[in-house]
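request received
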Amino acid sequence: MIKQEIKITNRLGLHARPAALLVQTAAGFDCDIKIAKDQVEINAKSIMGVMMLAAEYGSSLLLTFDGTDEQAAKEAITALFANKFNEDF
Amino acid sequence: MFVIKGVAASPGISIGPAVLLPTADFAVSNQYVEAAEVKAEIVKFHTAMEKTRRDLDECEEKLRSSLGAEYANLMSMHKMILQDPMLKDATIGKIKNEHMSAQGAIFLTLKELAASFDKIEDNFFKERRNDIFDVGKRLVNHLAGDKGAFWAGIRRPSVLVAHDLFPSDTLNLNEHQIIGFCTDLGGKTSHTAILAQSLKLPAVVGLSNAAREVKDGDTLIVDGENGLLIINPDRYTLASYKKIQREVKKAESLLQTINHLPTVTSDGKNFKLMVNFDPRTYTKDNKKLITDGLGLLRTEFLFMNIPQPPTEEEQYQTYLSVAKHFDMRPVTIRLADLGADKLPSFPLDEFDKDDNPFMGCRGIRLLLKNPELLHTQLRAIVRTACEVPAQVKIMIPMLSSVEELRHVRKALNNVLEAFAQEGKKPVNRIALGAMIEVPAAAIALDGMINEMDFLSIGTNDLIQYLIAVDRVNPEVAHMYDPCHPAVLRTIHQIIQTAHQRGKQVSICGEIAADVKMVPMLLGLEVDVLSVTPRMYLRIKNRIRNLNFESCSDTAQAALLASSSEEIRSLIEQQNQDEDS
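response:
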């Protein structure tokens, strides 16, 4: 199991498009991926879960990867956040 | 190509495009279902999911061509909602744990999800609840279904695929070009099976998830002979099934011409041809067959899917109705061959699931460990024999030693004595014999044959045990070979041993109904073949067209062969000679 803390750096936060991108990326891996914000933890493969987080700019998230391909999943998903979901803001 | 194994409900082969019956209507007020329907509701939900997904695909395509990619992406959000584990897990959870109907469960899940979105302060996300309800509406619409339009929409001969078929649906089958059907639910005795037989439609039931695997327009083969549904067959399979379809039709027309004729070879050698009888699949056409008797009545089905073993009375009623049908001819009842792949649903003494079930506690071994089961079954059989003029024969499954035979003989004598005290006596003496399917019984047959009245070779298991090959293991299944020299030599040895003591031998395995193997079995001088009713006339026809002397020559040559390949070419050779 890998835990990784991450800050949201794109200005609009996890709105529809980044949320969709995140869920699509997560769904490509076998491992369980959870995202926690404040007291709420959700399944990163659930679009509704990610939207419910309503993670805005500057909020910090705790990501948990658990499964055989957890390392690869961690790299792919942290890369999404680092690239600000390919949005030019 | 994809094959699903189900239960053969009605014989024949149908080939055609699939049409899927929409799931049943139900009132919105019907929020809860019976525990037994939970599985069906989950299938309904999955079907609705799949149909909704296809809707969304179509929508996306239309939007892409009319408004462009930006708008089409809106639909991918809907698709993600549809596939969201939160929606799926919560709905299935409510069906499974609370026994809600699929429709009720979706409603409640949507309501809960919408409530969580309402709590979100961000307006953008708040508005997404509309997306969720839009997807939900599509799902619910698919669950409701519209059947009138469905039937009217069938424009070519088609194979109907349904989760279950209701009496209200059945009227539509003949009117709307349905040439065969298959269902997820149902067994051999279900109303759907009986219906299919009366309509003479090939049918396979009990497929569990066909309604989910098949899509409208898929090419389907319904193999009502072997209980198979083949989805999108490859060219080779399709061609071979078309050939079988023609043969099935041809065999049906033979019914009229050779049914009343004796089973005799072209050079005048007589054989007996009997049927393996399963009362659950005995159709009107089967009843018209003129046979030499009942060669194998399997009784396991009486013990399956019920909470406790069948009573003497229940068994008696079944045996009585079967025996009456055969008037004065022999009726061979095999003691319950439970164990291995046929596990009863009620608990048994000293019975744990085996790691190696085919070599474990099955057949007579299981009955001797559960003497009350054996006793009840023997009583039911003896009671039948006191009532009918048929010659009742009791066959022991999985016999491996003479001690087992003696135990059963003793138990049978006790039962006969008890009946005698009530002043009851079988009309004909009851014969006690065995199924020879364990190699030990075949090899040591001469030591026990004097204590049995008859014997039958169970080739299915005998081949499996002789070659030490598990037929259901795909790694070795190809090694299961009726033409292996060891198989023919063992059959030959059994028949020779029996004939030396003046006893007849029958064969009741699948090999007896194999048109190619029949000449070999005749050549080995088997006395009786017992075959499934649907093959009965085909095998009779085959025997009537064979020359016994030539069968003998082939068999003698085969006994000297060192490989199955050699044996196969001998069989081919003879087939060609017969044809020319």
